[in-house]
């Protein structure tokens, strides 16, 4: 069971984790901040705002598992970007390790972009 998987206490309706709630919130915020430092070199927006991050799991041992995609399967940095993500998230205090899985299912579309990313690329 991972920290982000739901273990509901029927008495409280709260998600339970081996990681204290305050630390889990800080880790989550810091991981997102780290992801926002990674940019697709062809698009002036970070990968989080582009919607390239599909899933982030923080396990009880503080291992972070990320499922991400690229804007296109033939992206010129396809071989490098997962390493950039691993390095950025691995630098977050308290993270014990990072595994990045690249997927193209479902395929990325511009509809996944945040309003911030749309403004950055001039689509808004």
Fold and architecture overview:
This protein is of the alpha+beta class and 124 residues long. The protein has a single domain (21-120), classed as Fe-S cluster assembly (FSCA) (GMP Synthetase, Chain A, domain 3, 2-Layer Sandwich). Helix content is 25%, strand content 15%. The chain is built from three helices and three strands, in the order H-E-E-H-E-H. It has helices spanning 21-35, 81-90, 115-120; strands at residues 53-58, 63-68, 97-102. Strands 1-2-3 form a three-stranded mixed beta sheet, covered by helices on one side. Helix 2 links the parallel strand 2 (63-68) and strand 3. The protein is globular, with a radius of gyration of 16 Å. Residues 1-13 have low confidence and may be disordered.
List keywords for this structure.
124 residues, alpha+beta, GMP Synthetase, Chain A, domain 3, 3-stranded mixed β-sheet, 25% helix, 15% strand, disordered N terminus
What's the layout of helices and strands?
Blueprint: H1 21-35, E1 53-58, E2 63-68, H2 81-90, E3 97-102, H3 115-120
Parallel strand pairs: 2-3
Antiparallel strand pairs: 1-2
Count of beta strands? 3
Shape: globular
Indicate how many domains the architecture comprises.
1
CATH class value:
Alpha Beta
Major β-sheet strand ordering: 1-2-3
Stretches with pLDDT under 50, minimum 5 residues:
1-13
The proportion of residues in beta strands is: 5-15%
Rg to the nearest angstrom? Answer: 16 Å
First-last Cα distance: 40 Å
| N-to-C order of helices and strands | HEEHEH
Q: Could you state the CATH homologous superfamily?
A: Fe-S cluster assembly (FSCA)
């Amino acid at each position: 069971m991972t920290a982000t998987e739901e273990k509901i206490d029927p008495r409280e309706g709260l998600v339970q984790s081996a990681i204290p709630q305050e630390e889990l919130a800080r880790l989550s915020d810091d991981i997102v901040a780290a992801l926002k430092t990674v940019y697709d070199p062809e698009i002036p927006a970070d990968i989080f705002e582009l919607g390239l991050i599909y899933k982030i799991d923080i396990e009880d041992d503080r291992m972070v598992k990320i499922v991400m995609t690229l804007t296109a399967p033939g992206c010129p940095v396809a071989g490098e970007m997962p390493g950039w993500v691993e390095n950025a998230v691995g630098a977050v205090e308290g993270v014990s390790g990072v595994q990045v899985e690249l997927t193209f299912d479902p395929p990325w579309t511009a509809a996944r972009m945040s309003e911030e990313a749309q403004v950055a690329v001039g689509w808004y």
